[in-house]
Amino acid sequence: MVATLPGRTVGLGLITEQLLVDLGVTRSSYAELNLWATFLGALFLFGTGPALDRSLRWTTTAVLAAFSGAVFWLAHLPGPGLLLTVLILTRGLGQSSLSLSAVAIVGKSFKKKLSTAMGVFAVATSLLFVAAIPSVDSLLGQLGWRKVWMILAAVVLGISLLVAFLIRDPQAQKSRGEDDQTTTGMPFREALRSTFFWVLTIGIGIYYFAFTGITLFSESLVVSLDFSRDIRNWFLAIMMFSGLASNLCCGWLVQRVSVPNIFGGAMIIFAACLIGFPVASGSIGLIYAVAVALGVGSGAVTVIFFAGFADLFGKRHLGKIQGVAQAMTVASSGTGPLFFARSFESSGSYSSVFFTLAPLALLVGIWALCHQRTDTFAAKRSNSTH
């Protein structure tokens, strides 16, 4: 998952200023290209998902190798002519396909205690990103973005070789007579007809829509709430550490409480956070409480996003199922900041977005709590054993 850094917004954000000067691209043009690249890159998921269900090992290897090539190409781009093409490949292979591959590897590799594994995976990913981002940023100051991106391309290629040697395909295990739990599950079309698939997908889409806007414009947000800029760093730190704790707790809790109940509770907490932002204006105590609650809700939603689809719909078509959901979250992530920006430009605050999204998040949370998940693979499997 950390290998996706050169294709993520946070990774590209590290080189944006140098890239704009080097390629002679205006800020507005780059923003427009990036938005189109994000949307078009999400379409890669519709091919990657089915491919992962056929061969987890070789699909992930191919995605890593191709992503390495895209990063290398960006490092050697002489001008803006092919920038959109390279950004589409970078976004599609890195942010979209490789992210899905990483989640699918964990989802298909653990027969038992998947939720715990996903909790540990989420924590480890967060910590590695925390270490990788300042390290890459430091190298950029010393070597320049082109050399650093060439180094990252080589690292990604090296990881592809490790995946080729270390990852095992569940299909191959089944053919050798091993436990076939990782190759059972609800058919893809039936999963799409499941009510709770859309509860999860819509809820997670709302979460990413809001969360990307909050984090991208975090400095502007805290200033608009009458705080000093340095509060932003404390807010993000508190949110991150409460989120890590939530990852571990929810990984443990999913084994004891149903996914709909945890997800419903997380979305209700998230709705309260959205309302909390405008209410907390000028109050240090309240904004820090919002940071803690946002971390708790975000940590829970992240674990459910990673583990919930496998738990509810099985693992046979996990790549396809989660690929559809992730495509929608990528689209949400791309459009969220745009609505936040327009809200601020028109009114000087983000309150209108928060007051619009909070009721939607609350409704999804209530919907999840009321849903009995009778149309999921987990429920049907449970009924068949009684």
Q: What does this protein structure show overall?
A:
This protein is mostly helical and 386 residues long. It folds into 2 domains: 177 residues, Growth Hormone, Chain: A; 185 residues, MFS general substrate transporter like domains (Growth Hormone, Chain: A), CATH 1.20.1250. The protein is built from 17 helices and no strands. The protein is globular, with a radius of gyration of 21 Å. The C terminus is likely disordered.
Secondary-structure blueprint:
Layout: H1 9-23, H2 27-42, H3 45-54, H4 56-75, H5 83-109, H6 114-143, H7 145-166, H8 170-175, H9 188-192, H10 195-216, H11 218-224, H12 230-253, H13 259-279, H14 284-313, H15 318-347, H16 351-370, H17 377-384
Helix pairs in contact: 1-6, 2-5, 2-15, 3-4, 3-5, 3-15, 4-5, 4-7, 5-15, 6-7, 6-12, 6-14, 10-13, 10-14, 10-15, 10-16, 11-12, 12-14, 13-14, 13-16
